[in-house]
Amino acid sequence: MNDLEKFITKCEKNGKPYDKINLTDAPELTDEDFENGYFKYFRPPKKTVTIRLDIDNLHWLQSVGKKDYQTRLNGALRWARLNDCPIANI
User: Fold this and answer.
1) What is the C-alpha separation between 60 and 76, in angstroms, rounded?
2) In whole angstroms, what is the distance from residue 39 CA to residue 5 CA?
3) Which residues of 2-35 are buried (b: 16+ CB within 10 A; e: fewer)?
4) Is residue 38 located within the same domain as residue 51?
5) Its domain of life (predicted)?
6) What's the pLDDT tens digit per position in 19-44?
7) Are residue 59 and residue 84 in the same domain, yes or no?
8) Looking at the structure, do residues 12 and 33 belong to the same domain, yes or no?
9) Are residues 72 and 87 in the same domain?
10) Does 51 share its domain with 18?
């Protein structure tokens, strides 16, 4: 939970309606924020899935460290998507 969410939760617990909360210190969203498709404090929801990887690809992902290989795989997929890598031809 980020600071803004904590503040809103605290205000709601004290009975202050959301529309009465002072959000003047919240950052303004720019066109560039929307063009990038993600925000500094936004975390997309995660879903647990099972996939089968070729062993050489798994070793490559784990070569830097076995702990965060799923994060690296997610980052590689996000980079490919945001850079318009064509997957239809794969």
Assistant:
1) 12
2) 15
3) eeeeeebeeeeeeeeeeeeeeeeeeeeeeeeeee
4) no
5) Bacteria
6) 777 777 877 777 877 777 655 666 77
7) yes
8) yes
9) yes
10) no
Amino acid at 9: T
Q: Is the pTM of this model over 0.90?
A: no
Residues 6 or more apart in contact with residue 73 via CB below 8 angstroms: 61
Domain that holds residue 88: 45-90
Please tell me whether residues 1 and 34 are part of one structural domain. yes
Burial code of 54-88, b = ≥16 C-beta within 10 A, e = fewer? eeeeeeebeeeeeeebeeebeeeeeeeeeeeeeee
The token duo for 8 is 């809103």
